[in-house]
Prior knowledge:
Region (Disordered): 134-202
Distance between the termini: 48 Å
Organism: Symbiodinium microadriaticum (Dinoflagellate)
Pfam family, one: Ank_2
Order of helices and strands: HEEHEEEEEEHHHHHHHHHHHHHHHH
Number of helices: 18
ANK repeats: 334-366, 401-433, 434-466, 467-499
Protein name: Kinase D-interacting substrate of 220 kDa
Low-confidence stretches: 163-275, 277-289
Shape: flat
Oligomer: single chain
Number of strands: 8
Amino acid sequence: MAQLADLAGAVFEGHLQAPGLGKCGLSYRFGSVQTGLHTAVKSQRRQLGWTNNEEEIRCISAICCIPDLGLESEEVTVSVNPAGEDGSRLMLLQSLSRPDLGLTILRLNSGASSLAGGDESWTPDMVPIVRAERCKAPEKPKPVPRPPLQTSPARRPRARIPEPDAEPTPGDSDRSHPEDPTAPSAPAVQDDQPRGFGVVGGSGLLDTEAVSICMPVPFGEEAGGAGRPLEAAPRRAHENGIGRSVADAGTNSSGSSAFGYHSSEPAALRPDIATGRPGPLDQEVLLGSGELQVAANQERFVAAARAGEVGDLQQLFSRSGVRVDGSVSEGRFADQTALVAAASRGRADAVRVLLDRKAAVDASDANGWTGLMHAIHGQRAEVARYLLQARADVRQVADKSGSTPLILAASGARHELCKILIEHRSPLEISDMEGSTALHHAARRGNGAAVMTLLAARAKLEKQDSQGRTPLLAAAVAGRANTVELLVGQGANAQAVDCTGKGAKELATAYQHARVVQQLNATALAC
């Protein structure tokens, strides 16, 4: 129990070697130790031949996250076996609310620092497809002793200059310096040394003035006459931006040009006046309408769709260069349209807005995946329905993998997506790059409900992939004993062989799937 108590609250991160997807990141966050075994837990353990002695077994709640498979925060129950001779423990993970997700068997090492495992047919002598390591708690930084406080004479408060885009504090625009008006003013600095944003020698600002140093400092004549003393009072901060006179946005109080512009420069050349938009110079004014600004607006548009920010989408439609089906060639959202980005994250409201704006429903990304494919892969049923109502192409085939919407639906946990696609006349026998149909993928993943849905739609039961394997052989290779039983019961040929002449029993034996072999033996005896 001490080991399990230490496990409570621990986080493990690692990867799942998912067929057809490569390595998918996963994480487990364990909760508190529970007493008693749920009926569903007892049933699954009984099918695996594990003990149900409640004095030896403990249950732990956990959260499982596999983003690539659409599992963000799935609540699971973990039943933990007693420790073995080497101190390790076998653990069974299952979701009580979604039994269609299947089972996971993990082995916790004696130090409770790593997990390894696989599906329901995995045993410790097999190569694990799940690997995870325990995350170490971040070390708390050691407190740094503070130096002893030193008494110093009182200083006058510094005048605060607001940031260029910050809103002015009430009353700031009505005062220049907080110093006592009777105090003598500091002499103007006569050198040419830079002192921050918009501040050079001879500007008239006091040495105690707080300035920003995040922008380059102008020099020479462009600095507005550096080195020349100012006869008038120093300029003060103004709500329309640093370097703007209170009296006029174009000239300072002494009648010379605003700081940062040559005195002979025409006012019409200033970007804020030339555009008729005096005030803070935002990014759009600074960048103008060039290619850089067009790409930035388009990237913001795609990012807003991915985040589901409908209000931002509506505003960005009016920005220069934004196209509803546009994309950018670089960055996080390269080669994605707004509709593809929104569908991939299940943003139903954003998808609806984009479809109302006549977005191309069959636009694809660099891998040839459409918004419908992304929605189905992420198990986003609501978004998939919107796209199908907009006449999304159910025959679309991804360029690199050969996946179709129906193949992706058959590989996922929600069989109703298969039913929706079949109702929209999705072809059943389109194959991917390996010759596998949707029925092959459903059998390989052990999705019994999807298998029954496809068979009810008259999918071919003996269709062979590029290796000559039927859906039954694919299920046997993957170790899906329940699916093997289901396919045999639906009339699948138990004597079928692949291109190498191996049948289901030989393949199951080669891959060490003992439960599949037992199921096939039981089927042979029944016949």
